[in-house]
């Protein structure tokens, strides 16, 4: 029997439709949804009706529980809480009743399913690090478990050694003596890797798992969010920029009927209230800011889209990018010792718009954004303050990895979110390969959302310690922070070190 295992659709009908088409093409026997049908996206009614009609089994996710009031939103971000309210206002009582009756776990003959971990399903605990998989294995007997929640596709595996490991998405067959926890990733809100919709197929004979990752229309999703008065997220703005192709010719009309000229007495966007109009303008500002903060190669490729011709972001005032040029590359060879931090130290006393030493940053609005630096527990700390919802980017120079023999990079970082903080922060490792002329060309972006820390910190913090495997062709890398928030964010010195290939 062949199962399609999906999770975290998050009211994104465009992505869900793409995945459903792929499932139909593969002729699977059964569809199982691991929860979070709702939240974040603009299409709660359409997605919920589709899941109810087409999906064989659905378990409850934390966003679903929040919509039907089975769970409070105290721990949700402002963006997530707003989306819960949006879904709740649109759905009929019958929908809320169906959501509240969804089970927290589901058993099949040879595997089990839940949204979060299995040790305490109502708490919806994340399984992100390998050690966080241990409670679920202790609470179950099955060899194969499926979970969602983190939006990060991959496999946790434990064998005779008793040490759990995480493996990025790959096709595999179950082996005797090993146990597995598989996360299919997110259909509608894929904030990891290259931002594609992700799900997996489990074939019970042979016992095998294969991952499917599909692109979806991120620009259409952003437009739908904005048109419904909802906020989008920073990963989505960046993905839209990366998906755009440079214009080869000026846009012309091939229609017999000329386009109507907007009346001067009315807004150019007819039928949109002034508040939504301002939201559209703000979203265009965010998108252009991210373009300015991205890699220099991406700036060149997208310059005609963002700043040339009849501009998509015509109302935008260019953001502050300091310095405006690419910084000199850091040479990592020889890498001694192997755990050496490849990143420059954070500056001790910068004042915008002055340059940081060996860092590049970008702001939306100098009047509404400020920062200073200092020390916390002996480490350099950068404190960024936003008076309202703004974006901030910080990136290292290119790091030349040629000759180092590295098989992977280890990224470690910690942030602290003050009481007034509301938004999201992503740490990224960007890798490059050389083009036909020997110049670095962007290869892959590994993005990691900074959520919660295991330790109790004051102010509350978030930390990540992740390993990023390097392809053989990778020649350069860089570290980047992308943050969209209001309030105060404290960034501690990040670390990026190398791991030598084991022959």
Describe the model.
This protein is an alpha+beta fold and 503 residues long. The protein is 22% helix and 31% strand. It has two domains: 2-214, Metallo-dependent phosphatases (Purple Acid Phosphatase, chain A, domain 2), CATH 3.60.21; 321-500, Galactose-binding domain-like (Jelly Rolls, Sandwich). The protein has helices spanning 13-26, 44-54, 62-67, 78-90, 93-100, 134-139, 218-227, 234-243, 274-293, 296-306, and strands at 2-6, 30-33, 57-58, 105-108, 111-114, 144-146, 154-158, 165-167, 172-173, 179-183, 197-204, 207-214, 320-322, 330-331, 360-363, 369-376, 379-395, 399-400, 406-417, 422-434, 440-449, 461-469, 474-492, 495-500. Strands 13, 14, 15, 16, 17, 18, 19, 20, 21, 22, 23 and 24 form a twelve-stranded mixed sheet that branches. A six-stranded mixed sheet has the order 3-2-1-11-12-9, covered by helices on one side. The longest helix is centred in the middle third of the chain and has 20 residues, at 274-293. It starts with a strand and ends with a strand.
